[in-house]
Design goal:
Oligomer: single chain
Number of helices: 5
Structural class: mainly alpha
Strand content: under 5%
């Protein structure tokens, strides 16, 4: 007869401390800080293309807040700066194929 412990032997994918679906360690990571709130000298400007490139993916999409670490206020102003830079052709709307 099988015991209850034999059923779970070798299974690490359940919620008993295994790595889970994402493959991470399961621990907590340090929360990202908004770089514009932390440093007042960094200004968000639509003409600063080098700074805007950090918030745009390879395909030309905006990086979400949870990935970039921006606060809500600065994420909105960053999106506005990217839209303005796109309108005057400093940043492309989309990346064309090869």
């Amino acid at each position: 007869m099988m015991d209850k412990d034999d059923v779970y032997e070798g299974r690490d994918d359940d919620k008993r401390g295994g790595k889970g679906a994402r493959g991470g360690s399961g621990g907590f990571s340090r929360r990202k800080m908004c770089r514009f709130c932390a440093d007042d000298t960094v200004l968000m400007d639509y003409k600063n293309v080098a700074m805007l490139k950090h918030f745009i993916t390879e395909r030309g999409k905006l990086v979400p807040r949870r990935i970039s670490g921006n606060c809500a206020l600065h994420q909105r102003s960053m999106a506005l700066a990217v839209r303005r830079a796109r309108m005057i052709a400093l940043v492309p709307f989309t990346v064309t194929g090869k």
